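Hi! If you just cloned this repository, the fastest way to understand the data is to look at a raw example. We've pasted two of them here, unedited. The first protein comes first, obviously.
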Amino acid sequence: MKSTGIVRKVDELGRVVLPIELRRNMGIEIKDSLEIFVDENMIILKKYEPADIFTGSMEDLIDFKGKKVSKASILEMARIAGMEVKE
């Protein structure tokens, strides 16, 4: 992990402003979602990218009842259910 040398204060509502330079470099746009991770004493922010809820794959995603599922997972579930699958 490398330091940017940027220091920001947390406001009374717990918000921290990410400088425009960082947002541009990381491809973070207004209204983008950030995923929050905790590792011991560190808080890590990552641009959220939807993934298959079963495998974590980010390819060929379909939205099913508010969840992301890949076509590969759907085909596998169909096979497990005993359905004939044509690809």
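Ok, and the second one:
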Amino acid sequence: MKRTFENTETKTVVTNIFNEADEKMVEHLLRKMIGVGEDVELDDNLKETPHRVLKLWTEMTEGYREDPAKHLEKSFPINSPNLADDENSFDSNTTPTKFQKGIVVVSTDAWSNCCHHLAPMHCRVDVAYIPGEKVVGLSKIVRTVKAYGKRLNLQEAWGENIANAMMNKLNALGCMVRISGIHSCVSMRGAQEQTSKTTTMAIRGCFAEDVKARMEAISMMDKNELN
């Protein structure tokens, strides 16, 4: 399997992960799958579907071809004024403290696919952390969440990976990740339960040790509104 990709500032752009023979084989199998009861070659809507599916799955599995935690590598001193325009001239010893190690909560909407049926799951992901000596840009947390989502996941493992990355890269005092999701493998097949929702939590550091801090973080997560 050929994996040709390039890193950009915002994402990993995949150009091709299959050699030509593998690509033709996968497209052939997809054509046979959707060709049951349909003449794929005569339907203009279906002719290019195998190729489009291949591209879709290449994009949805980008999380295997990058380290999602890399988005957390650029961090800033906790008392940095507006994250400091010039990091080299910034002196944390002479700058008044701007942030007193309170709880930071970032909520985002994200997709992944379950590792059992390859079926989509649509989730709200809340990430709370208490910084140690450094903070990270809020968008970097969102990028980390979505990058780990571009793998075949157990919902539990998705949250564990995010929490571990936050603790390891930022030396956070505590981290908590709550994921609430609707799994199409439950709603579309099997139980066919349309209203079922699954919530999991990964808890680290002081959130695991301090019930009051944990409940405060959960309260902040509940108050974060997503349109």
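That's it. A detail worth noticing about the second one: Residues 1-15, 83-99 have pLDDT under 50 and may be disordered.
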